[in-house]
Amino acid sequence: MSSMRFSVLTLFPEQIESNVRRSITGRALERGVISLDTVNIRDFCTNSYGKIDDSIYGGGTGLLMYAEPVYEAWKSLFADDEDRPYTVYMSPKGKVFTQKKAAELSKEKHLCIICGHYEGIDSRVTDLICDEEISIGDYVLTGGELASCVVIDSVSRMIEGVLPNEDAYTFESHMDGTLESSSYTMPREWNGLKVPEVLLSGNDGAIAEHRRIDSLVQTWMKRPDMLDKLEITESEWEKMLALRRTL
Ligand code: SAH
Questions:
Q1: I want to staple 120 with a disulfide (CB 3.0 to 4.6 A). Which of 12, 116, 161, 164 is the partner?
Q2: Rounded mean pLDDT of the chain?
Q3: Separation CA 48–CA 185 (nearest Å)
Q4: Are the C-beta atoms of 66 and 122 separated by less than 8 Å?
Q5: C-alpha to C-alpha distance for 63 and 184, rounded to whole angstroms
Q6: CA 99 to mean position of chain CA atoms
Q7: What count of other Cβ atoms lies within 10 Å of the Cβ of residue 226?
Q8: Residue in 55, 90, 142 to alter for ligand 1 test, most ligand atoms within 8 A of Cβ
Q9: What is the pLDDT of residues 166-202, one digit of tens each?
Q10: How far apart are the CA of 47 and the centre of ligand 1, in A?
Q11: Has this prediction a pTM greater than 0.85?
């Protein structure tokens, strides 16, 4: 079984620990399918009074984290003769995170995620050690901790042995550029609303076909921008229209 190591450099390790050490990722940690170590950047402070940040050259409000403690914290993760981890900086300036990026990162053996705080980190160190910058969306957070938990969560569930089987993440929204079809559980009728008959039919072929068309309809209704990137045949359009009329 493959196993992946996540290392997070942060000023708030407990935010990462309390998020990741529970539920599905927590169980994956217990089983050793993934491992997590958090490094408190403050432990690598170069002054005796614990100062980790300073005002910004050239002016501007707020404080910026020093380069040196981040660099030393990063170097503490691996020995000189060891491979350096694939290193990412959580940043609103990064490329926006996607399911495709999560799949790519899930192939790494050791992923180091750096979280900034305040106004961020001195650019010299992030430019020097990071392979890429990743943003979780076009908005600004107060720190990279929530963002790194998002990355760890979505990357983890693509690692073999974290979810019960590969199907659990193969047939999901965003895996193939579409959204998942609508899903239902017991009871068959709730609040006067019935589960589509075909899903109760036991006919695997008909169910697969319904799900495929419904997945296209869901994408059409909820994320038309995604539909533009798909090639849809005329006969699929007809089935989509027919299904949409019943919703
Ligand atoms: N002054 C910076 C923002 C700093 S926000 C700028 O304008 O670009 C403080 C920290 O929060 C950042 O260092 C980063 O680690 C994290 N952060 C903020 N928004 C984020 C986002 N959308 N995605 C990922 N990390 C983010």
A1: 116
A2: 96
A3: 59
A4: yes
A5: 50
A6: 7
A7: 16
A8: 90
A9: 777 777 888 899 999 999 999 999 999 999 999 999 9
A10: 25
A11: yes
- Tokens 């849809």 found at: 232
Largest CA distance in the chain: 71
How many residues are present in the chain? 247
Separation of CA 128 and ligand 1 centre (Å)? 18
Q: Evaluate whether 53 touches 118 at the Cβ level (below 8 Å).
A: yes
Strands 34-40 and 53-55: unpaired
Long-range contact pairs involving 204-210 (C-beta distance under 8 Å, separation at least 24): 210/181, 210/243
Token pair for residue 157?
A: 């569930």
Element (H, E) at 212: helix 204-222
Helix, strand or coil, per DSSP, at residue 66:
coil
How far, in Å, from the CA of 133 to the mean position of ligand 1? Answer: 10
